[in-house]
Amino acid sequence: MDDCIFCKIASGQFESDIVYEDDDIVAFNDINPEAPTHILIIPKIHFESLNDVSEAESTVLGKINLVAKNLAMDRGIESGYRLVLNVGKEAGQTVAHIHYHLLGGRRLTWPPG
After folding, report:
1. Is 38 a catalytic residue?
2. Contact between residue 95 and residue 5 where contact means Cβ atoms under 8 Å apart
3. Which of 12, 16, 39, 85 is 20 to 30 A from 33 (CA-CA)?
4. Do residues 41 and 100 touch, judged by C-beta distance below 8 A?
5. What is the pLDDT of residues 7-58, one digit of tens each?
């Protein structure tokens, strides 16, 4: 998608503080962190939201979970972190590219919002 900021980050057209990258996934520090650790994890392929992911394409979502776990362990927050996926504007999704928020490094309260 030509106008998607996350697609531009994934393709290297837009600079970001990338903390992980492989052939399928990019993870980068959020520019407006809500916790000491706040990393966005995205697939390189563009999906507007979870509603657009087919079963055939779903393996990347499992891989994102493993990347999140490894990033949490690397940052020493494995004893407590949150992985958040907002779907749609009513849930707080502000960028129309599926993305997960890895949050940790402080006590996280419930309910979140």
Report:
1. no
2. yes
3. 12
4. yes
5. 999 999 999 999 999 999 999 999 999 999 999 999 999 999 999 999 999 9
